[in-house]
Structures are given as C-alpha cells and as structure tokens.
Amino acid sequence: MNLMHRADPTAPPTNERKLFPVSRAELERRWALTREHMRRLGLDALVAQSVRDFHGGYVRWFTDVPAGNPRTVIFYAADLMTVIDHGPAGRRRTLSGDDPTHPGVGELVTTAAFASAHYTQAADAAAVVEVLRRRGCRKVGLVGAAATPHGFVAHLTDALAGVEITDETDAIDRLKAIKSAEEIAAIRATAEMQDRVFMRVLEQVRPGMRDFEITALARYEGEREGSEQGLFLASSAPLGKPAPFAARHGQGRTMRAGDHMALLIENNGFGGFYTELARIIVFGKASSELNDGFQAAVEAQANTVKRFAPGASCRDIAAAHDDFMRARGLPLETRLYAHSQGYDLVERPLIRADETMSLAAGMNMAVHPTYATPAMFIVVCDNFLVEEHGPSVCLHKTEKKIFEIG
Known about the structure:
Number of helices: 9
CATH superfamily of the largest domain: Creatinase/methionine aminopeptidase superfamily
Order of helices and strands: HEHEEEEHEHEHHHEEEHHEEEEEEEE
Strand content: 15-25%
Strand order of the largest sheet: 4-5-3-2-1-6-7
Largest sheet: 7 strands, mixed
Number of strands: 18
CATH architecture of the largest domain: Alpha-Beta Complex
Shape: globular
C-alpha cells in the first residue's frame, strides 16, 4: 500500500486540503465505543486537551485533526463535539458535524491563549467551563489530565464546583490502543514509507555531510510522501567511540570516511499514524565488535517480539528482556525499549514493570532494544503487530544489518 493512496483509492477525497483523512466510518467507530463507555458510567461529557503534535493523540483520535496550540475537545454522550482552538478570542462558530475539516464537530470556539504567557492559561479552561455550564453537564470525565497543563486543569476543576469529575484516561487509552483494520492498513503504509526513506538516505549520504544534513534529508524524503510530523535522531562518531542519538541541536558534527552513525526515523505517515525505524550506517567497513553488538540487539528484539500475544503481561515481557540482557553481560535498560504507537509517538501500553495494561490483538508495537558501552552505541528498531495468535512479521522490510557505504 503506497502512502500516497487513500484507504479507498476510487473514492473521491472528502477534503482536498487534508493529506490523508481517515474515513468517516472509522471516526464513527471510535465515537460509538466512547459513547458506550460513557453510557455505562453516566458521563455527560469528556474533556481532552493536547498541546504537542507527536504526543497529541487524544485530540486527533476524536477529531482527525492534530494537536494545536493547544486544542481542546469536549466529547458529549449525545451530541456533536465542541472544539476549543487557537484563533480570535471569543469567536464561536456553529457547525453541522459534516464539515470536512471538522468532522463530528457542532461548535468551534477560539481563544488567544499561549503557553509562554502564563496569564492566558485560564482562557481555554474558561471556554470549556462556559460550554459545560450552558449545557447543564453534571458528570464530566477528563482524558489525559496528568499530561495537561496545570493551569488548565486547576481552573477547570475549581470552576466546576458541584460537577462530578472523573479520570477516564485508562478507558480511552485502551480504546485507542487497539487498532481497526483501517488503522492497521495506515500503520503498514507508514512502515513501508520509512523503508523507502531509509533507502533514499543511503543513496544520497556522503562523507563530509553534517549530522543534521543527514536527518534533514530523511525528513525531506518523508515529507515528500506526505508525512506531517516526527523526530529524526542521529549522531556520528569514529569507529570505537559511541554515537548515541542526538536531537537536532546536537547534530552539528561532520561525518567523515570511516565514521558510523545510528539513525532513527520516527515520523508519521498515512492518516497520522507513527512507526519507527533505526539502523546503523558506516562509511566504510564495520568492526567485528560493532557487528556483534548489533546482532545482540537483533536477538534481544526477537526475544521480546516472540512474547507478543493477546493477554501478555508487559511486566513479564520487560522482566524477560532484563534476563536476556543480563545473561549476555549486556547493560540493563532503564529507558523505555518497547511500546505501542498510534497517533502518539509513544502510547500505552509500555513494555515496562509499572504498566497495568496487557497486550491485545490489534496493537502496534515499536521494539528498539538499545545499549551503550565506552566503545559503541547499539540500537535496532522496528514495528510489529500483536495478532490473535501472536506477533506479526516485522512491518519494516529494511534488512536487520549494519549498512556499509563505500
């Protein structure tokens, strides 16, 4: 499935301005699951706010629009949504629910709030309070409140005295973690896109390029295919020295003949869904130490993936990974080495000891065992699906090896 194709290539686009809108049927599926949960608990509304594009999945899951600056959704048990967005203060628009840019939205309110101007922080919350009061909502669930700015949550809870407020994050996390057939098709397309991006990078990189030029090339190739957001981490070093991931501000080094680089491509693709791919590149010949270290990471990845099955405990999988690393004398990972993905670059469940959610069929898992020694930084990263009878084959087709150029 090419990233540039819609889920149904014969169907006319529902909105020529959106890169890859999900279908209305997919949105209706999500809304129905949410309303079923709300009816069981007697909830009148849910409130979700997202402020970061690559960790703003709640907003996009409800509305098919990425997180903004910020963007807040009020989802009702029996009505079209209200969205609070950035724009002229005090503006209010009534929509029909069929607007191609704002599907399922009946009311669009705009405010002029900024995270960098603390005294504006209450503006979005005040708009939410006004809407909930006007509609007579008596029981309201918050989604992702722990990751929402304190000023928003504090104002909301203080101003809604007399309204019962619950935390519905766990429930929505579980709903969005299990992907539909349409979502899985989009995820597969994103992995295929990243394979193509990596191969195009290999065709164009040369000694003398600075690290940021190489990641900029990966970003450019992804955006040519319609990718909207993402992170591109890399750094280079001579063989015998570690080259750990660095963000763009740390990508100033020039990569020379004989050097190596760990490159991570974690951008989204069709429909806004994330996968991630990481490999090691060498301008020359990889050392036996680097090859052996990479092979150990590939084996560690397989040791985790073979345990993916519906009902599997994330705690148990994480413990098995620790046992694998310990038995080989490799450093234990205290970072996150495997997790689900969707609209969020990292979403639950996480493969670690404190995760309470179990695996289920339909989850999209990124697995990136990583370790460092004084002589090398080792990583491999790919995506796998949890299927009814175990793990899928690897979604990425890029060979699991160190790529030698020149």
